[in-house]
Queue: 4 jobs
Job 1
Amino acid sequence: MSDAQLIAQLEGERDHVLRAVSGLTEDEMHRSVVPSGWTITRLLNHLTFDDEMFWISAVLGGNRRAIEDLHDGWASDPMTGAEAIDIYKRQIARSDEVLARIDLDAPPAWTPPTSVFDAPGMPDGRAVVFRVLNETSVHAGHLDIVRELIDGHQNLVFP
């Protein structure tokens, strides 16, 4: 898979996430329908802060502000659903700026200390983008299921 294809896949999964939450009411964005108790707003915060900001802005981009602002997205301060969507979109735009200027063959600009992320470092930018793609894809599927439970909407995928 080429770098352009990898980035296009990530863009497609981000769009999938945004389609899954489109048109939901504020109550629906904050309603938990799964035993673990997460809400759509909290999942969007996770994607924003733990994936886009952490992996792309901080790890790949080495952005000092992103590194200083890192926090557990699941535990973000409460916000409206519209704010969560807006913040996710803005972080995607920041991520895209990073992805447009880096070499995916190069090692990440920042390696988080084990107190922040206790796992082996990523060897290059491609591995980092693949991780974000994987996370986004998995959570897009979670959002599809929750959306169907809330209002019956289905994201139909045709072969």
Job 2
Amino acid sequence: MDYQFIQMEQQERIAVLKLNRPKALNALNSEVLKELECAIYNLDTDENVDVIIITGEGKAFVAGADITEMNPLGAEEGRVFGNLGQRVFRKIEKMEKPVIAAVNGFALGGGCELAMCCDMRIASEKAKFGQPEVGLGIIPGFSGTQRLPRLVGTAKAKELIFTGDIIKAQEAEKIGLVNKVVAPEELMNEAMDLAKRIAKNAQKAVRYANMAINRGFETDMETGIEIEANLFGLCFATKDQKEGMTAFVEKRKAEFKGE
């Protein structure tokens, strides 16, 4: 598919998806969201991709949902637009392949929500985060009210959402919203280094671990432990498990093939 608002490139088994609507600060309208959904589906089913990095073109990661498109919407139309964003972000969140957000600039509203649905977040020192929707007379609509409390705690999430405050990358790291903050010129190198460290391991094990964490986090401890046990057992049906343990015993470097 030819994308109008997305750029795609691949380095070895790592795909970089870049939102490319810089004049609008990569704002998310329906067209961008639908392109993102299609791109995520293609990456999820691409056997040559193990890790995905999402970033933005220009000075913004994503400055938010497109206010021009939202402004005339009625209640039902607003719900449909919100559901579209929720659906796309949920697909990213449920991917077995790890997804890293490389937050290069503004990550506000829908941009913060996009970053939060990724597995990990690396931020530039110039990045800024926030859910300022109440200042526009709405609430976060792409699952921000659900993911932000899970990442930073209920009280801090309510503070950020109720005030609409925008915070710098360093504060975002302090409260656990991002994994690491780096100089702007080092952002993609840092994200790529993290992706490579993940990609060198047994990929079925990485994906099973991701599934265990995501599914377990949304249930009770007993159910989560059972999910882990089942996925742990499935690892022993893979060739990579045999290779990894044999290589350890033989004191050599494992050569994983994702099988």
Job 3
Amino acid sequence: MKLHWSPRSPFVRKVMVAAHELGVVDRITTVRTVVAMDKVAPELLPDNPLGKIPTLVLEDGTVLYDSAVIIEYLDSLGGGGRMVPAAGPARFTELRRHALATGFLDLLILWRSERAKEAPPAALLEAFATKADSALRAIDAEIDAIAATPVGIAQITFAIAGDYMDFRFADLGWRDRAPRFAAWQARFRERPSMLATPVVDG
């Protein structure tokens, strides 16, 4: 399998962490693909018309994109049910938690993009800050229950969001504002799957 990949994309990292957790990382060949909001990778467009990563090309030429779809596929290689429970209330709880985690990560990426502009609208930055604070409070309130479940797509995404805040929002002081989340994330980031997939700004 071929994965369009970047060492600084948190969504690519989600896939790679899951691949390590599932024991299928040796079946993936990574292809360095440079994309950004203002940069298109022409070589990616035949595989993903949206020009986004991660994008996974299977051995038969089938293409999968969006990190959650790719992770569900990798999970299926071992029978499924590890990254997202197969059915019942546990499945929808995991999916709802993943929606919070990935939505938070999306928010952070958009916020960073706005902060990098020469004169971003103050109201927009304030809205991002308010939403980020709300998400942090929600995660902090639920993290003990999240930690009590098997490692899945939600836990992986929460941990990556924490690392992304350290990487891109050093001024946010999120660990002081969400101490339970911070304590959990400090433990999770020591898992071999996380250590094997460091964020590199290159």
Job 4
Amino acid sequence: MSHSLGVRQVQKQKTRQALLDAALGLLEEQSLSSLGLREVTRVVGVAPTAFYRHFKDMGELGVALVEEALGSLHVMVRAILAEQDGAEERIDRTVAVVQQHVRHHPLHIRFVARERHGGVRDVRLAIAGEMDRFAEEVAAALKSQPVSEGWCDDDVRMLAELYVDRLVTTAAALLDAEADDAEGADGVAGAGGAAGSEGAAERVVRVARRQLRLISIGRRHWREEGGGE
């Protein structure tokens, strides 16, 4: 009996993941508010009623996609921030991690970028909640660094929110930039491009690093200028 239950549980998990994957693929070209569960179940090859064994509605499925999309990035960036190397090294590695994440999970990034201000309230709230948790984790890492000595919790949290906002904005910008680069490469294939010219993704990375360094410089002088008062 227990073996049968285990097999059914595995199959249920596979179907749930298939529904998530199908929805994510369909959401590449449309918003969640316009996506119907029948479209999703048709791709998976299950009856529409089977959807309700896994999600109460499309909003709940969207929330699960948010957790999938942002969960792994929390761990990676928090680990980098916890390292004790210099600020510039941390910035370079953090931007590189974000760029790698975009390349590996473009559909997740597009989903979050589109739905962050989209029409499904539960999903908007889930994204805001994940970003809030992200900021808490980054704030904890920043608080442990010597440069944060004497900072109040509110100021550390404000700094963390600046970093998080830049990283999420950078991820969305990289998604579009890498698509532009791919289109540009197709357009000049065989015709010879502009050697040494900066691609759209390279430009986004360069600007992101400069923005994060500017925040870092401001961090070092915040208390000196009385910003925490």
